[in-house]
């Protein structure tokens, strides 16, 4: 089982050649072992949050292969992050070069954010760290980063069956005083910082600052840029197990032990819409009631009242065995889009 395998050596030298090529010809820094995105504003010394990253498919592949590579527990979480219908089959094929958004838990420590002990990749015969970083995970990480978090002293010595933690970059920082979801955006050839800022409704200055870039000209094609995604307003209370529930535009999330599905659509005035997930739970498990207390209103139900006022049953959080809801009124009258509790 002992390495080095010939391919490992090959990739190792290949990497050296590539890095010296870049340092000689394009003034790029050599592959860095600095981890993750900057994560300094988290309120606690180690913060956890939900994050997204673009996976640029190296080969034609199926959803279930991607799910398994990134250790995503349920296919529906991958579908929800990509706004794909819940009925999408696990063997749906996506062509090489397409992009899927990968949902994962982020952990911030020591001013950097990386995926929290996942995904775990198991070494197969003829693997090498450079190959795993570049051709399996499409450069979401560099091989020195894998080396660093797994305490590997010699990059040429990895063992078949060895389990490697792949440290995907992420952050839990607030941006300009707002909670956001940090999204590792794959920079397509020809894109500009200005264009990306416009696409995700942020500013060029915010992107440069977040990514430690002095100038927009530093943007490199195929790199991963930290993009803060604005999230929908929710009424989840701070004692709820899923607080803060951060759901960006165009994605959904399952919460409350999979009993509730919440969706964010900017078109709905940036208000989080939650409803019973309707999922079949494992045998012996049932969901607690999702009715708004004392009514026959279920989570997500809306009724129109007199004039332009509306009432809806909204999600406010969960703890073991209980889902909390409240009736919330809003107005469709022009110039009034605030929520108010009853
Ligand atoms: C996908 O899986 C379904 C059953 O789960 C099967 O009927 C179908 O033939 C598969 N499609 C492909 C392209 O493999
Ligand atoms: C935290 O980061 C500093 C500087 O990057 C480094 O010297 C130190 O070893 C790190 N501490 C831990 C616990 O990773
Ligand atoms: C993609 O294909 C290349 C070439 O066959 C292979 O080396 C690599 O491991 C594949 N990547 C994945 C994620 O399957
Ligand atoms: C690497 O070593 C450090 C310090 O000895 C330890 O805290 C950490 O858990 C180790 N990481 C892995 C993946 O074994
Ligand atoms: C982090 O917090 C500092 C001080 O509160 C603030 O100046 C800075 O803009 C924040 N960074 C981000 C990315 O929001
Ligand atoms: C973009 O962001 C600004 C400021 O945060 C906001 O006023 C505007 O409505 C947003 N645009 C869209 C289309 O959401
Ligand atoms: C749910 O509601 C109960 C009763 O009002 C309250 O005691 C509890 O703190 C709430 N839990 C959450 C997570 O909001
Ligand atoms: C929200 O997401 C949809 C696609 O899911 C996109 O078409 C729309 O432009 C986004 N809106 C904002 C304001 O980001
Ligand atoms: C209330 O919500 C439930 C669960 O989502 C749904 O099945 C039902 O059709 C809704 N009823 C009304 C009147 O909207």
From TrEMBL:
InterPro entries: LysM, LysM_dom_sf. This is LysM domain-containing protein. Pfam families: LysM. Residues 119-166, 183-227 form the LysM domain. CDD domains: LysM. The keyword Cell division does not apply. Keywords: Signal. It comes from the Eukaryota. Residues 1-27 form the signal peptide. It comes from Centaurea solstitialis. The lineage of its organism: Eukaryota, Viridiplantae, Streptophyta, Embryophyta, Tracheophyta. Gene3D superfamilies: LysM domain. PANTHER family: LYSM DOMAIN-CONTAINING GPI-ANCHORED PROTEIN 2.
